[in-house]
Each structure stands twice: as structure tokens, then as C-alpha cells.
């Protein structure tokens, strides 16, 4: 079995993160290739998301990474980045609190697992699970009490499961916390 190494995103890994998003993350889903994991950080009140360009999102996310405000984990196989999980204390993911479906009063104690991207050749090989485990361990180390994810109901196919499949979370000990028409919010007590 190929070893999966998971590293917490840091400014020193920006080049790897950009290489993953530039070439591999959405090689089979060009519709979302412009995101650069910026959706939950962009000011949607200033400008519609669909008007933003790939270069704008790439630049904005790069600046957030360098400032330590876009957080998550990169998965590597043979020194090549093959997966990503945006995972941060909820207070660092502004659009979760700005969205009435997800706003909660106890945001300070919660770590949010906003999205996953795994290069197509490495899907269903344990990469997402390793990223999820690293996110939960990171939250625990930061003193957060709860990990939270946002899998989509009725998601079919890999592109629709960019928040992580519900089964992934349930198998890792998460349980449904709340739900809306399209999303099941799942939580796991981290025992801190």
C-alpha cells in the first residue's frame, strides 16, 4: 500500500498547494477549477461569486495562506500533493457564519471541515479519510471541542461530494447535528 503523508498547510507549502489546484484538484471537473477554495472566504455581498475569475480566487487564497488565514491539510503520495481538506476553526471561515443555514452561537469551540479535493487517480484510496483524521487531530490540538462537516444530501458523483460524502463522516464517528434541504451538518465531539 502506498504511504499517504498529511501535512498541515503553512506558507512554506503554498507552492505545493497551488500546483495541486492548478493541475490536479479539478482536472476532471473544470467547472469548479476556478474556486481555489476561496468560496467560503470571498465577500459575496460585494460581488457575485460567479463574476470572480480563477486568477482572482487564486491570488486571494494565496494571500490568505501567506497570512495564515486559509487553513487545512495537504495529502501527499510520493512527495506529490494529491488531496486537500479545508479545515479551520469556524471563526476563520467567515461565510459559514454569514450563511443563515450554518450560523451557530457556539462557533468559537467548533472546527469546520468545509471541503475536500482529491485528485481523481487517488480517490477511494484512503486519502480523504486521512485528511479528515488529520483535521480532527488538529482541532483537538487547538483545544476545539467539536469538529463539524457539511456533506450534501443526495450528492451523486465525485464533484457533488466536495464537502465529503456523508458516509465518510459517519464512519469516522460523526453524527447528524442538524439539516437543511440540501445539507446534513454532522458533528463529532473531540473530547477536549
Explain what you see.
- With 192 residues, the protein is an alpha+beta fold.
- The chain has one domain (5-189): 3-Layer(aba) Sandwich (Aminopeptidase).
- Helix content is 26%, strand content 23%.
- The chain has five helices and seven strands, in the order βααββαβαβαββ.
- It has a seven-stranded mixed β-sheet, sandwiched between helices.
- The longest helix has 15 residues, at 127-141.
- The relative contact order is 0.15.
Q: What's the overall average pLDDT, rounded?
A: 92
Secondary structural class:
alpha+beta
3D shape: globular
CATH architecture: 3-Layer(aba) Sandwich
Q: Within the largest sheet, what's the order of strands?
A: 1-2-3-4-5-7-6
DSSP summary: helix tally? 5
Q: By CATH's scheme, which homologous superfamily applies?
A: Gcn5-related N-acetyltransferase (GNAT)
Helix content class: 25-40%
Largest sheet: 7 strands, mixed
Low-confidence stretches: none
Order of helices and strands: EHHEEHEHEHEE
Radius of gyration: 15 Å
> In total, how many beta strands?
7
What is the level 1 CATH name? Alpha Beta
